[in-house]
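Could someone model 5-amino-5-deoxy-1-O-phosphono-D-mannitol with this protein?
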Amino acid sequence: MCGIIGYIGVEEKATNMIMEGLSKLEYRGYDSAGIAIFTPSGICVEKTKGKLVNLADHLAQIGFPQGYAGIGHTRWATHGEPSDVNAHPHWSQDHSVVVVHNGIIENYAQLREELIAAGDTFLSDTDTEIIPHIIARYYREDKDPVQAISRAIQRMRGSYALGIMFADRPGELYAARKDSPLIVGLGQNENYIASDIPAVLAHTRDVYLLEDYDIAILNTEEIRIVDLEGNPVHREIFHVTWDVASAEKGGFPHFMLKEIHEQPHVVRETLASRLQENMDAPKMDDLGISKEVLDGLERIYMVACGTAYHAAMVGKYLIERVARLSTIVETASEFRYRDPIIDEKTLVIVVSQSGETADTLAALRMSKQAGAKVLGIVNVVGSSISREADYVFYTWAGPEIAVASTKAYSCQLAAMYLLTAHFALLRGKMTPQEFHDLKGDLIGLPAKIGEILKKEEEIKAIVDSVDPLNVFYVGRGLDYYTGMEGSLKLKEIAYLHSEAYAAGELKHGPIAMIEPGTLVIGIVTQKSLIEKTVSNLKEVKARGAQVLCITTEDADLALIQSVADQMITIPDCNWMFTSLLANIPQQLLAYYMSVKKGYDVDKPRNLAKSVTVE
Ligand code: M6R
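Reply:
Sure, complex below.
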């Protein structure tokens, strides 16, 4: 959570560079922001509560200087409410050190007590403020910045990405990390620190991905990376190949809408990374899952959070039904604390867009420690999960900026389709002809997404015609999981209370909630289950609910129309793919509901893009 940027150069433009970088990072947290700049009279720090625009207005008002170097931060509060004083950067007691921090220092209370006993006073409620205090104490003793940072780090438990400035070293910036992403960008006579790549992409494509316990020292000419003992560490330069435009809005009013419209392209990319028309099986040889490995497994877990968890639910359903392999899906926050059975005969598949979600990363580490092999289905190249998993299946969704995950989910499902086919072929549960047919259907999938996107105006009109008090998403089989994702999206960006239920469960309690003003969205795509779901929808309609159905063009439309007040159709498709296709209208419904209510679509309240704390 939170965003960090640091800049050092030979031209006096640090404030502009930092504010520009922060604008690219605001999606990581936006309850306050701050900046620290070296000026001839020392370090100047300014910070304000609220979105970045508040900081920009404040800096303009006070005529904040430019400077040659500085650090900036956009915050998502963990310790201490959003406020000016809790915003970063934070000073040491003697104003010799300034720090910005992402992550959580778990033993901060104990360290704070220790520092207070030694005479320090604290201004904020944050865990972060202890960091400059400790560094400054060691710096006074050692006069060596790296040693001071290293000694401070060794006192701290938890996670951190740090940008650090020493008041008596105006020509240098320092960075360090553990369990929280941080990169260092290489420029011409200028260098950068950032919590993620889009913040520097307009200026450089060459970055170092810092590893845990790396300390980086930047000046205008060079970047040195050392370990906790101060020994040089070699890191390869990572060259970013994405397009700068792909990290910006590209003419759409919101990142979310842009990302929804990117889905034909990114699903095609994800499929094409492992499947070509002339292949008899998807290319999966780098995943370490041969027939022998699969036969030797006693259990498969899929572990994820939020939208990625919903993709995992679909994956489990398909792997069990098509490849006949039992698979358990769990939310990472539960999995990591319940002592699950994990050993060498276990495969753990972790699914994560960011590759940085704290609970998912912890589940990965726990699984590896217990002897399991871990396969990561990850979108962000170079992320912690991609580096620590034994094997990685990259989804090629490109940078997802909107907090609400859309294109990453579709690419995760594309990965699930390929994985299902791989497992089923290895286990002899799919014939070559069946794979051939599936391959044709997969290759046709992006065009079908494109057809659904043409219905955007129709979906917007439906949103304009409804004003529900609460919403239920119901379906059976895959349709139930599709509804879970639709419901999450509506809650997250339209702040509308909604629930997803297996249609057959309604009678066991939730039907008591149905009354006029309730909107029930029936996802009705599984041919063999249509009649049953329609019966359940009739029951809610009889109790005053308004019914909206999402179904396929080749379904029994007369039957569905007998219950639906409104209907959205998606193209006919292989039954396996409906969770992807039926979700596109769900994304647009949530998007237009949020727009209609005037909410901040890309930055919904209380949320951040990457949940790097528990
Ligand atoms: O980066 P991850 O895929 O690990 O993130 C998991 C969830 O935090 C994420 O999917 C979240 O639920 C989204 N905001 C949903 O739109």
